[in-house]
Design brief:
- The protein has helices at 3-40, 43-55, 60-80, 86-107, 130-141, 155-165, 182-192, 210-215, 225-240, and strands at 116-122, 144-148, 169-173, 200-204, 220-222.
- With 241 residues, the chain is α/β, with parallel strands linked by helices.
- It has a five-stranded parallel β-sheet with strand order 2-1-3-4-5, with helices on both faces.
- It binds CO-5-methoxybenzimidazolylcobamide (B1M).
- The site of CO-5-methoxybenzimidazolylcobamide has 38 residues, from helix 3, helix 4, helix 5, strand 3 and strand 4.
C-alpha cells in the first residue's frame, strides 16, 4: 500500500516534465512564428505572436534580439543576394514596427529623474529608422529625455535641436555606406556652432565601427541599443565630473 503514493508521485513528476516540455516547445514555436512573420512581412502574425509572447512573460529583449533582428539580418542577406527586393524590405519593416509598437511600453523603466537629454536622428539621405527608434526607446526606458528628430536629418537640424533643448548628447544613426560620411559634417557643424564642449556625440548603425567614430571626432560608438545606453550613461558621468 505504501508503494501507491510513491507511484503517484513519480507519475506526477513525469507528467510535469512532459507538460513543461510541451509548454517550452509551444513558446519556441510561437517565437519562430515571429521570425517568419517579419521575414515574410506578415503584420498580423507579427502582432498576434508578439501579443502571445508578452502574455507568456517573455522578456522584450529576447523577443527583439533573438527573433526580430535575426529575421531582419536574414532579409538583408536575401536582399544582397538578389533573393529579396525593396517591397520585401518595406513589408518586413512594417511587420517589425507593428511588433515593436507593442514592446516599446515594456522597455520603459520606472524612472523619475532625467539622466540627461538626448537628441537622436538618422542622418541626411538615410531613411532607415527601426534601429534608431529602438535606441530611442531604450534610452527613454533608462531615464533619458529623448528628442527624436526622425530620418533624413540635416546638420542644421541637429544643431538647432541641441540649442533649443539644451541637449547633453547627440545620437546619430546611419545604415548606408553612402550616408555614414554625413556624420562628419554634423560633427563639423556642432564644432562651428561652438557646441562641441557642451554636447557629446554618439554614432551607431550597421556599417559603422569604433575606428570610424574616432576618425570623425565622435565621442562614442555602439553597435546595439543596449550598449548605446551604457555608453550614454558613461558619457553623462564624464559630463558631471
Ligand atoms: Co535598406 N539597406 N535600403 N531598407 N535595409 C540595408 C541597410 C542593407 C545593408 C541591405 C543589404 O544590402 N544587405 C543595404 C545597405 C548597403 C550599404 O550601404 N552597404 C540597404 C540598401 C542598399 C537600401 C536601399 C539603397 C535599397 C534601394 O532602394 N535600392 C534603400 C535606401 C533608402 C534610404 O535610406 N535612402 C533602402 C531602403 C530600405 C527600406 C526603406 C525599404 C527599409 C527600411 C525601413 C525603415 O527603417 N523604416 C530597409 C531595410 C528594412 C533594410 C534592412 C533589411 C534592415 C534594417 C533594419 O531595420 N535592421 C538592412 C539590412 C541589414 O541591416 N542587415 C538594409 C534592424 C535594426 C534593429 O538594426 O538598424 O542595424 P539596425 O540598428 C541596430 C544597430 O545598428 C544599432 O542599434 C540598433 C539596435 O540594435 N544602431 C545604433 C542603429 N542606429 C544607432 C544609433 C546609435 C547607436 C546604435 O546612436 C548612438
Amino acid at each position: 500500500m505504501e508503494i501507491f503514493p510513491e507511484y503517484i508521485c513519480k507519475v506526477r513528476n513525469k507528467l510535469s516534465v512532459f507538460i513543461n516540455l510541451i509548454y517550452n516547445k509551444h513558446i519556441m514555436s510561437d517565437l519562430n512564428n515571429l521570425y517568419d512573420a517579419v521575414l515574410t512581412g506578415n503584420l498580423n502574425l507579427a502582432v498576434s505572436t508578439t501579443q502571445e509572447a508578452i502574455a507568456e512573460g517573455i522578456a522584450p529583449q529576447e523577443i527583439i534580439n533573438g527573433y526580430m533582428i535575426k529575421a531582419m539580418e536574414e532579409m538583408g542577406a536575401r536582399f544582397e543576394s538578389g533573393k529579396a527586393f525593396v517591397p520585401n524590405l518595406l513589408m518586413a519593416a512594417r511587420a517589425m514596427k507593428g511588433s515593436l509598437d507593442l514592446l516599446k511600453p515594456l522597455l520603459k523603466g520606472d524612472t523619475s529623474a532625467s539622466m540627461g537629454k538626448v537628441v537622436i536622428g538618422t542622418v541626411k539621405g538615410d531613411l532607415h529608422d527601426i534601429g534608431k527608434n529602438l535606441v530611442a526607446s531604450m534610452m527613454e526606458g533608462c531615464g533619458f529625455e529623448v528628442i527624436n528628430l526622425g530620418v533624413d536629418v540635416s546638420s542644421d537640424k541637429f544643431v538647432e535641436a541641441v540649442k533649443e533643448h539644451n541637449a547633453d548628447i547627440i545620437c546619430m544613426s546611419a545604415l548606408l555606406t553612402t550616408t555614414m560620411n554625413y556624420m562628419k559634417e554634423v560633427v563639423a557643424a556642432v564644432e562651428a556652432a561652438g557646441l562641441k564642449d557642451k554636447v557629446k556625440i554618439m554614432v551607431g548603425g550597421a556599417p559603422l565601427s569604433n575606428s570610424f567614430a574616432s576618425q570623425i571626432g565622435a565621442d562614442g560608438y555602439s553597435d546595439n541599443a543596449n550598449s548605446a545606453v551604457q555608453k550614454a550613461k558613461e558619457l553623462m558621468s564624464v559630463n558631471l565630473n
